[in-house]
Amino acid sequence: MTTSRRHSNSRRNNRRKNNKKTIVPHLVVCSNCGALTPSHRVCTECGYYDGKLVIVKKIKEKKTAKQ
């Protein structure tokens, strides 16, 4: 029969610490439009990165009601 030994508090806590981790994205303000975007990514609102246009966005035109 094997006897179980007690683990120290630090070993127990090291095992449990990964259950509480949450991922919080680091957001920065876009220099072109001011929207919050993840760092080192193209802005999803305007398509600019590092002050340069990377993705051309199409602007949806609002349909007016016919009278």
Beta percentage is 5-15%
The total count of helices amounts to 1
- What is the helix/strand order? HEEEE
Major sheet: arrangement of strands: 1-2
Derived from helix and strand composition plus strand pairing, the structural class reads alpha+beta
Strand count: 4
The biggest beta sheet is recorded as:
2 strands, antiparallel
The span between the termini is 90 Å
Helical content, roughly? 10-25%
Radius of gyration: 25 Å
Tell the overall outline.
elongated
Low-confidence stretches: none
Mean pLDDT: 85
Pfam families: Ribosomal_L32p
Protein name: Large ribosomal subunit protein bL32
GO molecular function: structural constituent of ribosome
Keywords: Ribonucleoprotein, Ribosomal protein
Structure in words:
Residues 1-20 have a biased composition (Basic residues). This is Large ribosomal subunit protein bL32. One of its GO terms (cellular component) is large ribosomal subunit. Residues 1-21 are annotated as: Disordered. Keywords: Ribonucleoprotein, Ribosomal protein. This protein is an alpha+beta fold and 67 residues long. Helix content is 12%, strand content 15%. It contains one helix and four strands. It has one helix at 9-16; strands spanning 27-29, 36-38, 48-49, 52-53. The strands form two sheets. Strands 1-2 form a two-stranded antiparallel ribbon. Strand 3 and strand 4 form a beta hairpin. The mean pLDDT is 85.
